[in-house]
Amino acid sequence: MAFLLRHGRWGVACPRYVRAYAQRVAQYRPLPDPSVAWRAEDAAEARRVALQRHMPFAEADAEALPAMHASLAHMRAERTKLEDEQKRVGATIPMLAQSRGDPERLMQLRGRARELRTVLRELSQRIDEASARSLEIRSAWPNRMHPDVPIGPESASRVVVVHDARAGASALPGVSLPCSQHDFDACMEQALMPRPERDHLSLAHAMPDGGVDMAAGLTTTGPSWPYLIGTLSMLEHALCQYALHVAQKHGFVPVSVPDVVKTDVAERCGFRPRDEAAAQTYFVDTRRDTDGAAGLCLAGTAEIPLAALVAKHTYEARGPSSMGDVRHMALPMRLTALGHAFRAEAGARGADTRGLYRIHQFSKVELFAVTTPDESDRMLESLREVQQEMVEGLGLLYRVLDMSSEELGASAYRKYDIEAWMPGRGAWGEICSASNCTDYQARRLAIKYRDAESGKNAYAHTLNATAAAIPRLQLALLETYASTRLALPSTLRPFWLGGPKDPRVEWIDLHAPSAIARAQAQLRAMAQRTGAKPAPLLLAFAILHELTALVPLFVLAFVLTTLGAGDAILRSIDAAMLHIAPSEHDRLSAWIDRGSRTARRLSHRLGADASTNPAAWLTSLTASYVVVKLLLPVRIAASLALAPVTARALVRCWRRT
Q1: In percent, how much of the chain has pLDDT > 70?
Q2: Is the pLDDT score of 466 beyond 70?
Q3: pTM for the whole thing?
Q4: Which pLDDT score is estimated for 553?
Q5: Any bridge partners for residue 422, and if so which?
Q6: What number of H helices and E strands is found in the chain?
Q7: Which residues contact 372 (CB under 8 A, 6 or more apart)?
Q8: How far apart (Å, rounded) are the C-alpha atoms in residues 142 and 407?
Q9: Is the pLDDT confidence value at 381 over 60?
Q10: Closest CA relative to residue 366, chosen from 438, 435, 275, 450
C-alpha cells in the first residue's frame, strides 16, 4: 500500500478493510457527536474571547444562532406534538381493525399514520441539520480564557520565572518579576548579546564526530528535513531518554503512540486541519479507496494520540490505578509519550527556518494529564515544575512566560511557554509549553469522570505539556556550551549511547560542590590513603592548624622585638605587596589594621601605654601576625602532612585513658 503525504488540503478516505477490521474488534465504538460548552446566548462572550485571541469570528453565523435556536425549539415542540398524535393513531388502528367497524375511518387513520411518518422523518431531518449547524458554529469558537491571562500580542506575555542554570555563568541584571516580555527584553538587552560565532550549524559542521546534513534532506524530501549524524544523533537519543526518565520519576505512565491519526480526532483536539491552518498539516492519502471514510493525517504532536487513547471512557475521580489498562486508571491520570511531530510550517520565516530551529519532522516527548475540574489549575503548575526541572538539569538559561491572549491556541484556557537563551541566534527560543485545555477536548472526545460524592458523570479536564522538543534543545545546548568538541551537561551522561567515558564528549558538571563538600571529599580521600579514621584526622588537622599559627606568631614576635625590626618589616611587606600584587594590597592593609588593634588590646591588658610611644613588641606582634597570615599555604601543607601521624597518636592516647 502506497502512502502519499500532502499538506494544505483535505485527504482521501481510509480503506474499507480498516472499517471491516474495526467492526471485528469487540471494544471498538465510534466517537460520539462532540459536545460544546458554549450556548447560543454566549455569543457575545465568545466574540470577546475570539477578538482577544486575534482569531476570526463568524459574525453572520453568530447572529443567525438565536433565530436558529428559536426555530429548533418550535420544530421540537411540533415534533413532540406529532409524535403524541402518532401514538394515539397507532393505538386506535388495531382497535378498529379488531372491531371491524367503520372501514372508512380505519382507512383514514392508516393514511394519517403514513402521513405522520413522512412528516416526522422530514421534521427530524431538519432538526438534525439545524442542530448540526448550530454545533458547527459553536465548535468554531475558541475555549474560554483564565482571568489572569495577559491581553494583547506576544510582547504582552508575562515573564514569571527566569533562571540561569549554566555552569560558570555570570550574574544577570536584577529584574522585578513578574513583568511584561517587552520590559524584560529591554532590561536584558545589554547583558545578553548575540554571539554569531556560536551558530549551531557552524559548530555542528566543525565537529569531527557528528553533524547536521541539511543538503541530504533536500535530496530525500525537501527543505528543512535534516539528517543528524554521529554524536548529534546520539544526543537526540540521550535527550529523549532523559526526558522520559524525569517524566516517569514524577509518575507519568509511558505510552507508545501512532504517528498517524484521523483528521476528525485532530480537529476534536483543537488543531482543525480542515480550515486555513491546514497548511500546517500533512495528510495521508492511500490512493486505495474514496468511499468517504475518515481521512488520516500525520500528528503534529503526541498530545493527539494520547487524547484519543483516553477518549470515550468514564474514569473514577479517586481510587487505585492500573498502569496496564487505561480504562482502569483513576484521576488524576498522567501519561507521557515519545513521538514524531510533523509540521508543514508553510511559508518563509527568515532566521527561524535556519538549521534545527524550525523543521518539518522532529522527535518530541509529550506529557498529558486528565484531571477533575477543580484540580486542573494545580496540575498545570505541576507540569510546569516538571518542565523546569528538565531544563535546569540541562544547564540552560531559561525564562517562563504566562502567554498572552493572542498566543493561545483554540483549545488553551491558559498556557505557559519556556524559552531558552540561544546565543548564536541572539534570541530566546521556545523549547517547552504547557496548556490547560479544561473541558474543550474532553467534550469533543467524550472524556468523563464519575463524581465521588454525587455519583454523576461529568466532563474531565485535559492538559498537555512538552517535556522535550529535541531539535531546539540540541540547538540550545550547542550554542550555550560552544566548544571544539561536543560539550554536554553531566546529567545526560547516564543516557549516552557511547558510555560515560566517551572521549568524544566533554562532560560539564553543572553543580560544582561547595567548599564544605570539597573539604569532606578531601578528608575522606586522605583517611583512605593514610589508613587513619576521618574524625581523629580532622581533630589533628584542627590542632596542628592552630599550633602552626600560634607558635610562629609568638616566636616571631619575640625575635622581632629583640631585633627592633617590627616597623621595618611592616613597611617592607606593605611596599612589596603594593608593587608585586596591587590587587591584594587592600587585604594586606586590613590584616595590618587588625593586627594593630589586637596588639593594642594586648598592650592595654598588660598595662603598657601604646598611644604615646609605640612599643617595639607591639609593632613586632603586628608584623608577626601579617607574616603568619602570608604563610597560610605553608601552614596548611604542614598540618596536612603531620595530621595522619598526630591522629594515630591521639587515638593511642585515647585508648590508654
Answers
A1: 81
A2: yes
A3: 0.74
A4: 78
A5: 427
A6: 19, 20
A7: 317, 331, 332, 449, 460, 461
A8: 12
A9: yes
A10: 435
Cβ neighbors of 332 (< 8 A, separation 6 or more) are 369, 370, 371, 372, 375, 379
The Cα 56–Cα 61 span in angstroms is 12
Residue 632 is which amino acid?
A: L
**Contacts for 16 with CB less than 8 Å, ≥ 6 apart:** 289, 291, 293
Contact 13, 290 (CB under 8 A): yes
Q: Cα-atom radius of gyration of the chain, to the nearest Å?
A: 38
Q: How confident is the model over 190-239, as pLDDT tens digits?
A: 889 999 999 999 999 999 888 899 999 999 999 999 999 999 999 999 99
Nearest to 85 by CA among 119, 125, 131: 119
The grid coordinates listed for 635 are: 601552614
C-alpha cell at 596: 594593630
Q: What pLDDT, on a 0 to 100 scale, did the predictor assign at position 655?
A: 73
For residue 535, give the C-alpha cell: 574524625
DSSP 43-95: HHHHHHHHHHTT----HHHHHHHHHHHHHHHHHHHHHHHHHHHHHHHHHHHHH
Vertex 112 angle, CA 108 and 116, to 5°: 175
Q: How many CB atoms lie within 10 A of CB 192?
A: 17
User: pLDDT value at position 195?
Assistant: 92
Distance separating alpha carbons of residues 122 and 56, to the nearest angstrom? 34
Grid cell locating 81: 406534538
Banded model confidence at residue 562, pLDDT cuts 50, 70, 90: confident
What order do you get walking across the sheet with 457-459 strand by strand?
314-316, 448-450, 457-459
Report residue 436 as a C-alpha cell.
Answer: 490547560
Which residue has cell 602552626? Answer: 548
